[in-house]
Structure formats: structure tokens, C-alpha cells
Amino acid sequence: MTDEEQPEDRPDDALEEWQNYPPENMLEEEAISKGPEGIGGWLIIPLIGLVLNPFLYGVYSYLFITTFIEDQTKYLILADGLQALAISLFAFYCLVRFFQKKTQVPALVTLLYVIIIIDAGLELIYTNGNYEVRMDFIRVIIVSSIWIIYFARSKRVANTFVR
Fold this sequence. Notes:
Blueprint: H1 11-19, H2 24-34, H3 44-67, H4 74-100, H5 105-126, H6 131-153, H7 155-160
């Protein structure tokens, strides 16, 4: 190789290339491959659940209290009411973080669904497992499992909760 064939070292060109990396067309390709983002698609369904959860647990608590008025179950009523209140408050916290698009939302929502499964399991134990409670427990396990997997694997979830 002669001196004419060797490329010259141009630090200014290298610096300019580094500052402009990645090229604009590459950014567009990455955005396309990144997938959907924002609160939309299937993510609307768990959002509706998070909005309704505090109200549903409040109604559940009321129904539970009016069903078991006997003195021997007053501690059970108190425990269940406090449990429903705690779940409602945690669901509200998850909802606030959801709208803030915080990175911990998938973990918080997963924890909420696990707590709801545990709550349904405790209800199954409290009521000696009648048919309706067993069916509710199975429904809770199926629905919670679907949304736990969704929050763990969804590209929309990964792209939405980034703050």
C-alpha cells in the first residue's frame, strides 16, 4: 500500500459521526421493532380492574359483614374488612403508579394479583369451601395468572412503564 491508498486520520469526522449516532433511519427502525406503547390495547382491561378493585372489595366487605353478623364471627368480620381495606388501598396505589407509568408497575400489579389469589384462598378456607367459593377461587387463579403473565411478557407493558 502506498501512502495515497491509506485513509487519513480525521478526528473531526470520527467525532461528528459518533455524535450523530445512531443515524435517523436506524432510530425509526428501532421504534418500529420496539412495539406498541402507551395505555391501550389489552392493557385497558387490567386498568379497568384496577379502577374497579377498591369499589368491588368495598362491596365484598359489606356483603361479608351483613352475611355473618353472629358474635362468634366478629373477629373474622373485622379481619376480612381490614384485609379488603388493605387490598383496596394497595390497588389504589397501583392505579396511581399505573397512570404515572412507573417502572415498578408490573411488579406491583403482579404482587396485587398474588395477594388477590391469597385472599380468595383464605375465603375458601373461611367458608369451608362451598361450591360457589371454589368456583370463584378457580376463576381468580385463572384470571390472575393470565394478567401476571401478560405483565411479565408484554412488549406494550415494557414500553409503557419506563419512568
